[in-house]
Please model this.
Amino acid sequence: METSGCVVGDDTGSPEHRFLRPIIETNQFQTMHCHAMMDDMCSNFQLSRSADLRCEDDDEYQFRDRDGKDCSWAGEKNKTVRCSKLDTSNDGKSVFESCRSTCGYCDCEDKASFRFNAIEDKDCNWVQADAANRCALHGVSDHCKSACGVECCQDDVNFRYKGRFDCSWAGKNPKRKKFRCAKKLVAKNCPKTCGLCAIEASDV
Model:
């Protein structure tokens, strides 16, 4: 039986079937080949968060390509001003986007997996119980930023855009969030709401 020019059924001896067999077999081979390629590609495909959002400084960064104006320069004095500067040589990004560690734009959250000296009950809650002494221990404040009160990336609770709108306003409407957070003043004061806070490199 024939339907729309294609042979259907078991009439393997028909001229039409002998003509179509190479095409059918080729198409089946191509389909299998494409599936195999996709499986191979997808098995090696991993989603990762942008390196631009890692909690670290860019060692090669120079503000407006000027020698000596690296991330250390950003933190020497007038840090708030320098970290907020726009860098025309770096796609118009703010300095803090390249110097997140120095500028304090790392996430404020404590690491749930942290254990001091790998001791099970010595987590960030343990640190917070005696923060004055325990936060001074090597590496502790890097993992327990909230417990240690480390300067980090958070919204300014006192900020009011045009004297009226706080950071919750910036993120309240998903459709308008991008537009509102594009405003320099909002992005600077509401980095957490606007998704500008860094992530720990070890969490990527």
